[in-house]
Amino acid sequence: MAKSRSGVFEKEASTLLDRFNASLPFDKKLYKEDIEGSLAHASMLAKQGILTKDEAKTITNGLKTVLNEIENGEFVFDLRDEDIHMAVEKRLGEIIGEEIGGKLHTARSRNDQVALDFRLYVQKNSLHLIALIKNLIETLLDIAKKNVDTMLPGMTHLQHAQPINFAFHLLAYMCMFRRDIERLDSSYKRSDFSPLGSAALAGSSYAVDRIYTAKELGFSGITNNAMDSVSDRDFALEILFNISVLMMHVSRLAEELILWSSAEFKFITLSDEYSTGSSIMPQKKNPDVPELLRGKTGRVYGNLIGLLTVLKGLPLAYNKDMQEDKEGVFDSIETADISMRILNETLKTMSINRDNMSKACAKGHLSATDLADYLVTHSNTPFREAHFITGKAVARAEELGVDISQISIEELKKVDDRIGDDAIRFLNLEASMNARNSKGGTAKSETLLQIKDMEDWLTGFK
Description:
Elements: H1 15-21, H2 24-27, H3 31-47, H4 53-71, H5 84-96, H6 98-101, H7 110-145, E1 151-156, E2 159-165, H8 166-190, E3 193-194, H9 210-216, E4 221-222, H10 226-231, H11 234-260, E5 268-269, H12 288-311, H13 326-349, E6 351-352, H14 354-360, H15 368-379, H16 383-400, H17 409-415, H18 429-435, H19 444-460
Parallel strand pairs: 3-4
Antiparallel strand pairs: 1-2, 5-6
């Protein structure tokens, strides 16, 4: 089968142009989607009487042979074929003859063909990433359910702030990952429309049935405008954005895993399976997995910015610049895939050092706010004044070299006579944590409700 440039051209393309122009080295990843689209297209052409049933059957069998060859490693990819579409079409012609094989491209352009293939690929991988994130949330839930009573310092500005439980902390990440699923799901629904049949840019003069091919391929409907259909890469931008936000959340969790595993914190111990050593310091056990997760976030950001830049000045409809749309998407999907898998395993295998978390709560005067709240509720002290009095109490605790949760009631009463004997129980760290029982708070009762809500949502998500 001759190359698509033949006919109007008198000279063959240079070898350098073949190398520069070809997308086959990377878009061969789309072979399955390309063949799926061609099978649906051939079926539609036969249904509409554009192909005979025998011709469609021959093409279908030939395409299935090509698919088997690729999946069995028998297919020879030739750079001169330029892209996966021409590679498949050429091999089809070799198998069934060019006279019938050449009819497959009737009422279709490579413009709507690549738009279809790429969209199918993104849709499939959106569902795949959703499944991986669900697995991650399930792992976090398992850890959370075992650590509702595990206390650690909640921080702001990376400074000890108020006592929380570890399950509550993990639930914050579960909320982030839940939103990541919802974003991917929303993008999937918004992109669930087939561009096939839009042809080059203006539709087809053949009596094609676009709704039929959309149903055959599992889409919920068809795109509305042929020019937009071949020009649109919003679906690619959306998955790149969704992965960027997902990886930002992963990076934040990775940062905390790095901190928590350090000698200064010792809140967790990463398993040997997911740690590395030093080439010179034999005592080292490095958190390379979370560090790489943190680093790969910048990589996926770059892919998003790269495609935004490619698309920002393009006139309608298709332009060859859009060949640059795929490598970044492939890379981001693959990066997110392995990142979610290894993060999940890292979390499953890490050890939680509950005693160290608990000991850390006795630093930084985590229950100081409870003394201010006590003054407001028990002596009608304005909060700003209560805040000032509590600051003086913290200063006194510092002078004594103790945490405010450990100071004696006698010392507290010296600070201000509005502090009664009952104030001391409000400074208890567990009581402080459980006092925060507003909806979404860290109290054990609320944490359990949040766990239940997350489990229900995960079970009900379709």
